Amino acid sequence: MGFLTAEEKGLVNGLWGKVNVDEVGGEALGRLLVVYPWTQRFFQSFGDLSSADAIMGNSKVKAHGKKVLNSFSDGLKNIDDLKGAFAKLSELHCDKLHVDPENFRLLGNVLVCVLAHHFGHEFNPQVQAAFQKVVAGVASALAHRYH
Amino acid sequence: MVLSAADKSNVKACWGKIGSHAGDYGTEALERTFCCFPTTKTYFHHFDLSHGSAQVKAHGQKVADALTQAVAHINDLPNALSALSDLHAYKLRVDPVNFKLLSHCLLVTLACHHPAEFTPAVHASLDKFFSAVSTVLTSKYR
User: A6-143: what CATH class?
Assistant: First the structure.
């Protein structure tokens, strides 16, 4: 067995196929900045982050959220080797971006909330459990090259 | 972490909408917690944790009732939750990390059932509220 069981892979891919990655990316990043305002520290150049509405409507937030989630989506294609898939990005986040890996865990959980919000009952406990494994795996992979 | 007037208002409004479903949501949040974070089951080794368990249902109702009380006394959580705080400190001794896990699953449950209410601002207020409750419940640990 790899990182996920065959059943969990099915649940993850089944749901992810219906996700509008661009939109969900913007939503997840926006909510991260609203719910955990200290994360705004990485986005000083993004302009108006003064209110929930400003953040959610901010075009730079949306664009960056889209970038982040497309990257996450690419990573899902290599679910059995997340550390390999995210090695370069891990180095980038450590050496250039200086992002505390705790932020990856926060974003992962916000993403889970966004998926729950979009999919409602379909996002049942088993589906959530599979996604919790995925976001934990991605966070861990992104932190793996830190030194 | 201080709850603003807006946070309190958001929480009261959202909890008000939940109404009599609170028990169901408490139960669902517990089920999600056990399913997603299996280590949390160590505190319930004496429970039947299968889906539909009467024990989990009763416990979910207990958790929901406590949160309803907390919402009603949102201006004075330490007093309102004092007995529960003692219970968790001296008897249950649930490791503090687990409050975050249950809080997250409460958010997920509410997001699933009340998409219209679960705006970013309300999401933030609820997260702060659960965090404040968790802080009170672990405040006497040492």
Answer: mainly alpha
Domains contained in chain B, number: 1
- Averaged confidence pLDDT in chain A: 96
The values of phi and psi at residue A59, to 5°, are -70, -30
Full DSSP string of A72-94: HHHHHTTGGGHHHHTHHHHHIII
The answer to whether residues B5 and B86 touch, using CB atoms and an 8 Å cutoff, is: no
> Is the Cβ pair A128, B111 closer than 8 Å?
no
The DSSP result for B33-77, as a single string, is HHHH-GGGGGGGTTS--STT-HHHHHHHHHHHHHHHHHHHTTT-H
List the single residue in A112, A117, A129 with the smallest CB-CB distance to B118: A117
CATH number of the domain where residue B15 is located? 1.10.490.10
* Contact at CB, A125 and B36, closer than 8 angstroms: yes
Question: Residue B51: which domain range?
Answer: 5-138
Give ipTM to 2 decimals: 0.90
**Cβ–Cβ below 8 Å for A35 and B120:** yes
Quote the pTM value: 0.94
Nearest alpha carbon to residue A45 among A59, A25, A32: A59
B32: chain A residues, CB-CB within 8 Å:
125, 128-129
Q: Which residues of B touch A34 (CB under 8 A)?
A: 120-121, 123-124
Query: With contacts defined as CB-CB under 8 Å, which chain B residues touch A113?
Result: 104, 107-108, 111, 118, 123
Kindly determine whether residue A120 and residue B121, on different chains, have CB atoms separated by under 8 Å.
no
Please give the pLDDT value at position A124: 98
Q: Report CB contact under 8 Å: A116, B111.
A: yes
Question: Residue A1's pLDDT band (boundaries 50, 70, 90)?
Answer: low
